[in-house]
Structures
1.
Amino acid sequence: MVSNLLNVFLQLLEGFICFTFYENVTDIQKGKVKRFIVIELSYLVMCVMNLAFDYNVIINTSLLLVFHFILSKLIYSITIKYSLFYAFIIPCLVTITEFSTIELISVIKNVDLEQSLADPYIYIMIIIFSKSLLFFFLKVISNIFCKYSVVRKNNFIFLIYPATLLVVLTSFVTISSRYALNNIDKIVLSISSIALIITVILICLFQQQAAKKEIELEELRSLQQKQDINETYYELLERQNEAMQVLAHDNKNQLNNIYNMIKQGEDACEYIKTLISDIDEANDISYTSNKLLNLIINKYDYRCRKYNMNFEIDVLSDFDSIKESELSSVFDNLLDNAFEAAKASQEKYILLRITKFNNMNIVVIKNSCDKVPSKRGHRLITSKKDGLHGFGYKSACKTVKRNNGDIEWEYSAAGKSFIVSIILNN
């Protein structure tokens, strides 16, 4: 009876581990609880079938192979190629981890296979240790094949949790083999082992979900910025259309003036030169050779004039340090933060300066800011209700760091100003 209950526990634990694996390698958000229930029920069905066939190795392996292929393809909509890969790799890992753990504990405890499986305490240690190994290897595989490759570096850092779990469990096995433990000690070690593996699995599962949410927030922020740029662009087009109508009216009057001056024998050259200068000044909206950066700068220039704010633009260098697709992540995020803070201040000003020193582009964004920024350590904390203000600075930092640059911020309480400085190598 105890052995059957332990087999059920083994199958449920293995199902939980496989559930975390599939959730890591896919990005399906809805129906998480239903998928978990389906997987656990499927493992219970396999457990019943294994008990009916007295845990025949061939039948057990075949059931695992078929089940994981169906699970990958039908429930998670994974391609046939990867469904087959997972269907083969998971049963292989299950077999390898269970066999190696049984052999290892048999050697350490100096008992044969039958004695190991007959002792409930040893059997629990085999289950926990083998499933910890399985979880560790599946965690490595999920990090390699994870769709969210941008957070892969952080994912590998989290391997320290399952690795530490293996070390702790190895210590438990060593302690139990060297010392004669009573039943209470064995129960405590068993419960501790079970609690440890469940805790580590939950930590890694929550970490992966947090990473996915962070990517989704970044995508949402990017979409929001594109929408803002489009709206501002249409407003600029409307304003230019109105300006063209005024220009057409003015041109008519100016041409009449030139015609009358020439007709009366007056010199019209100075008058024409003045008109050319005015036209050049009106069209001078290109700050760099980068069209997207020009559009972003003009967007905030227009918004500042709309709210009677001073926007000083001092661009002395073309900005070509990062890809155009990443410009919005840096300038739109930082200028949006500067605009919101300046709009709520008394002085209402923003300064954007882009210069070049040796082979480096230096960007300084300074804005009036009456309120001291909230921070935790040196990390900014959002003051917006939508939670995207601090996230915008975080997104800009990631882009700058990804391009081997440096970014720092400082707040001057005396001058009531907030300054962001960026250095990027060309």
Note: The two ends are 70 Å apart (CA to CA).
2.
Amino acid sequence: MKKKNIQVAENVFAVIGLTFFTQGFQVAYDANSATLLPPIVISIIRYSVWFISLAIVIFNYKKALMVIRQDIFIAILVALIYASSIWSYNPGHTDANMPEVLQMTSFALYFATRFTIKQQVRLVAWTFALGAIVSIFFVWRLPGVGLHWKTHPGAWKGIYDYKNTFGSMMVIGSVAFLLVPVDIKHRLYKWGFFLLMLLMIYFSTSKTSLIVSFLIFVIVYFYRQFRWQGKRSIVVLDLGVMAVGSICAIVVSLWAEILGAFGKDPTLTGRLPMWASLIERLIIEQPLLGFGRGGLWGEESNYSLEAGMLLSDNYIPPHAHNGYVDLALDVGLIGLSLFLISLIIAFYRSLKLAYNTKNSEYIWPLGFLLFLSLNNMSESYLIRLANIYWVLYAATALSLGAEIRRNAFKRSLSEKNRNSILPNLE
């Protein structure tokens, strides 16, 4: 009974930690107004989550070291990000926001060390179910908080800072509920919350979230139907790749018309000129190590003002609206390369895990990695601020290697037991 209570308490702590990194506790009327919770309360939650997760990691340091070795590129990237204050264009701004990196990574390491992928999917599903329910309450009782008014009037943002953020959170929640394992008596809750997540995506009016969720569901369905079953699956996979490639070719050739149908201009609301300008400046000035974490977007930076002028007069963008561009600006091509290597390894392992199991929860890493890769094409959801995206990415990438080995051991053990039984039957 005591062990069960400890597990329940740790599950509650994990959900609180995940909710904190979604910025769900920092709910406010808008980005420029004070949060509803007093800052001291938010600080208590922040440091409690950080110190408790760090203490648990230290207590389980042997297992934590094994987990870190599953993807050493993440550790190197985090070290590079932390060192970027040395060459930062705005070292004061970089230093002030650097603890966020350690907070996110510490909690991600704790999450990967203490929970299996199956448990992680459940905790993620609970977190966003809670986020959706509380968001509905705010829209109902405090519409000034839960809805946009001045910009994007009527669009839902719930307990989050922006409609696109709300949409992306609900996309993660929908993927989690699609893949979370449940018994027969709980299927109604699973599919009920899944449909609720889809409804929340619709109310967010985030077109990016709608498109990304559709693509993820199609790809996840493909992998659920055609797992690794021999040569036939290889043929099906090749045909699937060809089909996706054909669709991409059509989208690329008709992208102006497609974006126009969604109310966007062919340059993604002016982002392409901004990206081109930022990449050019990076290559000319700091190609290898970048400008330091957030250094380009600090209050004292003239670069952000120049980039904003490409979008509209007197607009200062808070980020590049592209996670890969922002990462390159922060830690250069070296840092971007480290992340891409880590991402490719994680994708390979997620495909291997998805193909070699019939359990739906083992498709979760693939689903989340697809979300992260697609969503960062038009939003900055990697290491900017303290965010849930880096937490879930690092936890997923670190968990995959151990999960594959665990499943391989179970299969070999099952095969040994089967082989030992056969002679007795003969």
Note: The longest helix spans residues 388-425.
